[in-house]
Amino acid sequence: MSESGENVAPTPRGLPAEVARRRTFAVISHPDAGKSTLTEALALHARMISEAGAIHGKAGRKSTVSDWMEMEKARGISVSSTALQFNYRAAGSDIDNVINLVDTPGHSDFSEDTYRVLTAVDAAVMLIDAAKGLEPQTLKLFQVCRHRGIPVITVINKWDRPGQAPLELLDEISERIGLTPTPLFLPVGIAGDFRGLLRRGPEGEASEYIHFTRTAGGATIAPEEYLTPDEAQAREGEPWTTAAEESELLSATGQDHDQEMFLAGQTSPVIYASAMLNFGVRQLLETLVELAPAPGSRADVTGKERTTGDPFSAVVFKVQAGMDTAHRDRLAFMRIVSGEFERGMVVTHAQTGRPFATKYALTVFGRERTTVDTAYPGDVVGLVNATALAPGHTLFVEKKVEYPPIPSFAPEHFATLRARSAGKYKQFRKAIDQLDSEGVVQVLRNDARGDATPVLAAVGPMQFEVVTARMQGEFNVETQLDFLPFTLARRTDAESAPELDRQRGVEVFTRTDGVVLALFSDKWRLQYIEKEHPNLTLEPLVATA
Ligand code: G4P
């Protein structure tokens, strides 16, 4: 691409430089760990907002920002925000990095989309509440990161509140998930008395002390002072000595950062922080810029790598549809893999071979929708009225490419669905096929139940709400949803199916992609059957390609 660009200068830096300055990541966490607070703190540090406080409007914090985080409600369905893009210039750098924070819908809107988002990022920040340690939703999301080989940076949040000992939390991480934590910074002061961060140098030697000062309600960036280890010792005494000793202990057990091991998903750099007080937030941004990978090449269905310098291509990772019946609003979000995107360019939809015009390209964060004119690998762009697009689909120009489909993730909620009126059966079948192909929900069948009452399988119950609302709104079919008492699925095969079907609390189905799934009422049932029938095929379903 030329360097000329007259008005908006689409490529003032050229494609390689645009790619190199980008970092695309998601935060994986359990509800309440502080994801919204951290997102806001990042925006504050990137100077997108001048004061934090939109989330909770605490005393001393003002509600200044537009209501990004407030989930939009349309017919009872929350529309999650999608991607926040901001520039960040690290201290001493002359490059503005472009940070894409892709939202992982959590809380009540936890769904298969939450997992799919992780196919669109190059790194993840695992946000942990210092008092609670690893929690279930974090663990599930971490497993997806591990499966996909996504490097993980760990942030231990809420250090301003009483919690566990710093090294205890690290032990929990290595023992429970086999990820070796390698702190880059250690807290000075116990949980609840957060004074600053010790920066760990080579071999765990304390290289610097970053002392933070609280601001009223944590509304503005916490002033930082940089001290030498000797100055830190003189100033903080015991808490500094403790942190320095802990750092040495960690080195003795090999818990020092190693870039290769981090990129391989074996170790995780750790930062202690307080998102609410804005402590450690700058350090997280610096870590993302310094250590997280820039967008890289991606293998296509044949295993051939498409490099970021190749002509434009992108993968759709999320589709939001039917939220606004008046407009038949249907937004498809794509992550750009290669080349430069310019709004208005006509791309090819790999799955149908049809052209797709990109006149309406947007970035979406909460209620804010901004038109995108140019975008680069790592960026997330929303396409309006993208009726043919479904998660996993590929768009490209010039050089044909098709990326592998996004895997289906392990469902944990199951329900039967039927049309209330038998006369609507045809529309009902059509709608089910449509919603299935869009990846709104997984559809399971078996002979015993027949086609009139398929079983829907979901990662989060909100997916069922979307199905029933769209059935009614778009297909004009009133449906009846009945939950089934299963909580767990395992991949099995045709040989094991008859024996499994004979077991109490178990039912076997075939998913549309042909995978045979056995559903279990609970983990004890599964454990019992595994013990009694060791020859049956029962594989965990983190993700199935
Ligand atoms: P989420 O998006 O991950 O669900 O979490 P969110 O940011 O909404 O934070 C959940 C709660 O944790 C909030 O408190 C928030 O203020 C608090 N919190 C987040 N980060 C920190 C931190 O670093 N330190 C402390 N002490 N608290 C933090 P809440 O009780 O839900 O609301 P509020 O009563 O505090 O307004």
Automatic annotation (TrEMBL):
Membrane-spanning ranges: none
Localization: Cytoplasm
A Pfam family that the UniProt record links to this protein: EF-G_D2
GO function terms (MF aspect): GTP binding; GTPase activity; translation release factor activity, codon nonspecific; translation release factor activity, codon specific
Keyword Lipid biosynthesis set for record: no
PANTHER family xrefs: PEPTIDE CHAIN RELEASE FACTOR RF3
Originating gene: prfC
GO biological process: regulation of translational termination
InterPro entries named among the record's database cross-references: EF-G-like_DII, EFG_III/V, G_TR_CS, P-loop_NTPase, PrfC, RF3_C, RF3_dom_3_sf, RF3_GTP-bd
Protein keywords: Cytoplasm, GTP-binding, Nucleotide-binding, Protein biosynthesis
Protein name from the UniProt record: Peptide chain release factor 3
Family label: Belongs to the TRAFAC class translation factor GTPase superfamily. Classic translation factor GTPase family. PrfC subfamily.
Residues that bind GTP: 103-107
